[in-house]
């Protein structure tokens, strides 16, 4: 998938509030996808750090792109599970969201996502399971 295809996919399948995160493709291959989450002060909670809900939505979105790339295009799917570990607070700077498909089955897809801060340090790590619909 090229940048135009990814942006069209995001515009078509994401909920309006997720689109406001402004996620942009960095790279997409059959093995995975990396998106950039641009920094915005509006993403921080009262503690001054980007809130976990933002990271969970960004991770979920990057995996949808990664699965779509692995499949050669979008296919209806839904998240079955997402487990995330918040390892480092992010107060400023863009975040890279790198999703990788671990196993692409007939109905289930397993993946992992690493979110890194502007210094390249891991802020969050997530594992996911999705189900594909016919």
Q: Notable features of this structure?
A:
single chain, about 130 residues, alpha+beta, Thiol Ester Dehydrase, Chain A, six-stranded antiparallel β-sheet, 3 helices, 6 strands, about 25% helix, hydrolase, PAAI_dom, HotDog_dom_sf, Thioestr_dom, 1,4-dihydroxy-2-naphthoyl-CoA thioesterase activity
What is this structure's SSE topology?
Blueprint: H1 3-13, H2 16-19, E1 24-28, E2 32-37, H3 52-71, E3 77-86, E4 95-104, E5 108-116, E6 122-132
Antiparallel strand pairs: 1-2, 2-4, 3-6, 4-5, 5-6
Q: What can you tell me about this protein's structure?
A:
- The protein is α+β, with helices and mostly antiparallel strands.
- It has a single domain (3-132), classed as Hotdog Thioesterase (Thiol Ester Dehydrase, Chain A, Roll).
- Helix content is 26%, strand content 38%.
- The chain has a six-stranded antiparallel β-sheet, with helices on one face.
- The two termini are 21 Å apart.
- Residues 48-124 form the Thioesterase domain.
- GO terms for molecular function: 1,4-dihydroxy-2-naphthoyl-CoA thioesterase activity.
- It comes from Trinickia terrae.
- This is PaaI family thioesterase.
What is this entry, summarized?
The protein has one domain: Hotdog Thioesterase (Thiol Ester Dehydrase, Chain A, Roll), CATH 3.10.129. It is built from three helices and six strands. It has helices at residues 3-13, 16-19, 52-71, and strands at 24-28, 32-37, 77-86, 95-104, 108-116, 122-132.
């Amino acid at each position: 998938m090229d940048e135009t295809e990814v942006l069209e996919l995001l515009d078509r399948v994401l909920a309006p509030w997720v689109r406001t995160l402004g996620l942009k493709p960095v790279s997409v291959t059959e093995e995975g996808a990396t998106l950039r989450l641009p920094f915005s002060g509006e993403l921080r909670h009262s503690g001054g750090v980007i809130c976990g809900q933002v990271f969970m939505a960004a991770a979920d979105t990057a995996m949808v792109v990664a699965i779509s790339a692995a499949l050669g295009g979008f296919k209806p799917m839904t998240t079955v599970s997402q487990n995330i570990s918040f390892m480092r607070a992010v107060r400023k700077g863009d975040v890279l969201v790198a999703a990788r498909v671990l196993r692409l089955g007939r109905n289930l897809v397993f993946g992992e996502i690493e979110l890194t801060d502007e210094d390249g340090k891991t802020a969050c790590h997530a594992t996911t399971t999705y189900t594909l619909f016919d």
